[in-house]
Amino acid sequence: MTxxxxxxxxxxxxxxxxxxxxxxxxxxxxxxxxxxxxxxxHSVSIxxxxxxxxxxxxxxxxxxxxxxxxxxxxxxxxxxxxKTFTGYVAAKAVLDKKINLDDDIRIYLSEPYPNLEFNGxxxxxxxxxxxTSGFPNFxxxxxxxxxxxEGLKLIKIETxxxxxxxxxxxxxxxxxYILEKVYQKPYEELVIEFVLKPNKMNQTKFTxxxxxxxxxxxGYNDKNELMPNFNRTLWGGISGLHSTPTDLVKYMKLQxxxxxxxxxxxxxxxxxxxxxxxxxxxxxxxxxxxxLIYRHHGGIYGMQNxxxxxxxKNMGISILTNTSFNETGEILxxxxxxxxxxxxx
Length: 345
Prior knowledge:
This protein has 345 residues and is α+β, with helices and mostly antiparallel strands.
């Protein structure tokens, strides 16, 4: 190839890249503006990783009437998307042979807890990870860690573990405790060591300093009432991480890394629910003949988000908003699906 031909080739290649990038931006803008037509929403940040390139765009205002648009460093609460970090650390613990998916959870507890079984059938690590333990949604006691264990004594398991899916915020907190015990390190440090530092996610953290607390997004309900931020009293296995759109793109890249053994383990299907729906290590997995999707929703008092990855497309989408009400998750899910469709036209 001559220098002239190479120059022409590079010119059109660059033109194609710019065109693809513009298509992504247009798709994000269209879907974001349609969402904001619903006046219950005030701002939205959308991050897309596609074809090796990241695109992050922001719309609306964080504080009603102030016109303060979010940006790449805006700090959001991740809420239950935090559970995917718990799943990652659990997957590493399995590979490190610190835990086994079939372990009776009581071998890690300091008291016998005879109530944590059903007709002699024990609850295992796998049951904690897949919401099939029979645990209640919220811990019976959650004011502190000591109270949490007292609350475990009050649980009555009414179905055989591993058979029925029932979403539980109690189970991931116990998982975080078990991980802390087997590694002999605070759970927060495990997330930093295994996930955040290796992936340079420097803006993602559990504990915020005064300056970070001051810039943490304050969210609203559907009546435009300002809502409080989440106050973590337990380990953080269910919620408590704060992050930015920029860092979430880094998290997408991690989850799309097919050479990462921990990622591969965390994406394993552990429990089947329906014809094309599985639970992994706190990932909801949808797979049919044409598509493979790993996703998780996060909802807290004044904030909600969806985090979705598409391994076959080497693509990820994150959408965050400072609004939370009953239908928010369903609405955001539809936005993600429409955006994904637009990006693949």
